[in-house]
Design goal:
alpha+beta; 4-stranded antiparallel beta sheet; 15% helix; globular
Length: 62
């Protein structure tokens, strides 16, 4: 898996224009997610360990 760019919001290259997608911010001490169509809106923040556990789970693959 490719590393996300550190210190900036990242949108998947597989995301199509106008489609629903989230952006991810990968920092040293936190990982954030937000709606790519509403970048000034709410954000969710996680500890890196919690994000890694989520990515390693089967939950998001449903």
């Amino acid at each position: 898996m490719n590393e996300l760019p550190a210190g900036k919001w990242f949108k998947s290259s597989r995301s199509e224009t106008g489609k629903q997608c989230v952006e991810v911010y990968h920092g040293d001490e936190s990982v954030g997610i937000r709606d790519s169509k509403n970048p000034g809106g709410p954000e969710l923040w996680f500890a890196p360990e919690a994000w890694d556990a989520f990515l390693g789970s089967d939950f998001w693959k449903r």
